[in-house]
Amino acid sequence: MDFELIASTFPRMLAVLDKTLILAASSLAIGFFLAIGLAVASLSRFAVARSLVAGYVYVFRSTPLLVQLFLIYYGSGQFRHAFEAVGLWALFKDAWFCAIFALTLNTAAYSCMIIRGGLQSVPWGQVEAARAVGMSSVLAFRRIVFPIAIRQALPAYSNEMILMVKATSLASTITIIEMTGTAKNIISATYRPVEVFLVAGAFYLTINFLITRAVQALEIWLNPHQRRRSNRRTRVAVPR
Q1: What is the set of domains in the chain, with CATH numbers?
Q2: Which runs of consecutive H residues, i.e. helices, occur in the chain?
Q3: What are phi and psi of 87, to 5 degrees?
Q4: What's the Cα-to-Cα distance from 82 to each of 69, 77, 92, rounded to whole Å?
Q5: Whole-structure pTM value
Q6: Residue-level pLDDT at 231
Q7: Regions of the chain where pLDDT drops below 50
Q8: Which of 29, 168, 170, 214 is the most buried (most CB within 10 A)?
């Protein structure tokens, strides 16, 4: 084990950590809001909207993310003239845009089903109570349905967040030098993959650990009964 290589690899990984975080945070943030719209459309009374969402989700959940990334980055060149005509080629020729675009579309498909499940888990009595006090459909969704659905969907959505952090490693295949890309460059120069990937794995492990802790804290904050239970456990654990 080359500990000097591990020590020299650490700062180089730290220098590109922001790129991995930008890829993950951007795709998750945009994909989350897109998933909300898709989830609502999938539960609408319009058959066309439901069919379009079902087709979108089926395609992106049934094909590998790497294939989607290659099709968007390399395949967009086949339609260069069409993109230039509408002023979009400046975006699709950029590797960063293609990476975030592919990650966003992928996470939106998975998140759509997670949020959809959360919306379906809202007790119908809560909706009827909102209507009984005169709330409109939009107001009831904003104040009653959506907060309850998010609390129900949060544990499953945390898994999607972790998966997207790990999925950012695929961006190295389209010339983006984030943590995995940096690791590959170091390995090509040193021929020591074990030490380098140990450092890279430690960074991914730390990021995902922080995500799980943050989601756990958010889940407790959104569920008052869990806060009370946690406080009771704390009081019981304190010696008298």
Answers
A1: 1-16+177-240 (no CATH), 22-173 (1.10.3720.10)
A2: 3-15, 17-42, 47-62, 65-73, 80-85, 89-92, 95-120, 124-132, 137-140, 146-167, 179-190, 193-222, 224-237
A3: 75, 25
A4: 20, 10, 11
A5: 0.89
A6: 58
A7: 238, 240
A8: 168
